[in-house]
Design brief:
single chain, about 90 residues, alpha+beta, Immunoglobulin-like, 6-stranded antiparallel β-sheet
Length: about 90
């Protein structure tokens, strides 16, 4: 056992940062109920004013709410605004 996972775990502990941040895991940050920033997404699968869904490395993320808008999107990040009611990791 061991290998790269152990190296990442030790580095994360030493640097006092979450292990997943080092492993290239997608990051989803919600500011209040009005804005969501997703980093390391791999594309949109659904887009409506009450539900936006996108893919990430190991699954999908569904954002539910009202008046949802895709404010910006590039190859690595997307920004959603509106009234966010729920974020589901599928």
């Amino acid at each position: 056992m061991g290998g790269m996972t152990d190296v990442i775990d030790r580095a994360a502990k030493r640097l006092e940062i979450p292990t997943l941040g080092l492993a290239g895991a997608p990051r989803v940050s919600v500011t209040g109920r009005g804005q969501l920033l997703a980093e390391l997404h791999t594309g949109l699968t659904q887009y409506a004013d009450d539900c936006i869904e996108f893919t990430v490395k190991n699954g999908r993320v569904r954002v539910r709410g009202t008046g949802l808008r895709l404010e910006a999107m590039d190859a690595g990040a997307l920004l959603i605004s509106g009234v966010i009611a729920a974020v589901e990791f599928l």
